Amino acid sequence: MIHRHLAHQRPTMAALDDLLENGTLADWRPILADVLRDPGGETARRILLLAERRDYREAGGFWRAFIAKARSDQRQGDHG
What we know:
By secondary structure, the chain is mainly alpha-helical.
């Protein structure tokens, strides 16, 4: 699926909004990988901000849980 505003190196808020609203799992893979690489990073923070502001139905809940798990796993790796 071609999404708007995806020409940037890092996804813009508009691009993330479009992906969360209209994307498929295949479209999400690069963003999932980015969040796993850096759960506290800009992409994760932007997704959480969007999920607070918009109703993405199940997608919002998925992303909040995914980011929380990635952050938990990172903390356990740092201390485990």
